Amino acid sequence: MAFAVSDELLGTFVPIAVYWLYSGLYIVLDGLGMDDYRLHPKGEESKNIVSKWTVVRGVLVQQAFQIAVSLLLFTALGDESGTVRKQPHALHHTLVVPYAFGALYNHPLEGLILDTIGGALSFLISGMTPRIGIFFFSFATIKTVDDHCGLWLPGNILHVFFSNNSAYHDIHHQLYGNKYNFSQPFFVMWDKILGTYMPYTLETRKGGGFEARPVKLNQA
Ligand SMILES: [Zn+2]
């Protein structure tokens, strides 16, 4: 049992394991019904123009890139961690009804440039240790998967602490909303600063569940 895994290796692979475990939990919840808590009624995912398997394959490619870049970084820099989370872009927007496991679904090149480099920079600039990196990137992974879970569950502690949440990000995934609510995964500050903040109300949907509705704002 003397085999020791480095924090750098853990920082590379733990967030990926967390990604599939946490989104797997939402797949299980989805299978249990949850009709009272959905942001989109069941069956509406037929509006998504890609299949679930395409999403899974896309995410796996993305994570393969992350692993490759992360390991390259360690080799080049000695002790840096370059693991990652997602930001939304064109391919990501094929999901009008987000899937938890689709949080990382994106074009590999965009993911590589924006997220892998973004993740590596946040690691380098903040000066966090590889061990802290394991927790930070795992938490960021949990948060971004949660933002794509498509549910508004009572007692979700992430909803208590973050106004950036599954309803906020659902707006971003709608056809009318893809120029708004970009900020991911923690705060809404940049949307407010850059004028892309779309307020919304969370309304009860006839037939069960909820709907995030944008508030039309014309005050400049
Ligand atoms: Zn998204």
From TrEMBL:
Membrane topology: Multi-pass membrane protein
Keyword Lyase: yes
Subcellular location: Endoplasmic reticulum membrane
Pfam families to which the protein is assigned, alphabetical: FA_hydroxylase (PF04116)
One Gene Ontology biological process: lipid biosynthetic process
Chief localisation class: endoplasmic reticulum
Molecular function as annotated in GO: aldehyde oxygenase (deformylating) activity; iron ion binding; oxidoreductase activity
Enzyme Commission numbers on file: 4.1.99.5
Keyword field: Endoplasmic reticulum, Lyase, Membrane, NADP, Transmembrane, Transmembrane helix
Known catalytic reactions: a long-chain fatty aldehyde + 2 NADPH + O2 + H(+) = a long-chain alkane + formate + 2 NADP(+) + H2O
Residues that span the membrane, as ranges: 12-33, 54-77
Chain ranges of the Fatty acid hydroxylase domain: 87-196
Domain of life of the source: Eukaryota
GO CC, alphabetical: endoplasmic reticulum membrane
Family, as annotated: Belongs to the sterol desaturase family.
Name of the protein in question: aldehyde oxygenase (deformylating)
Gene name in the database record: gb17428
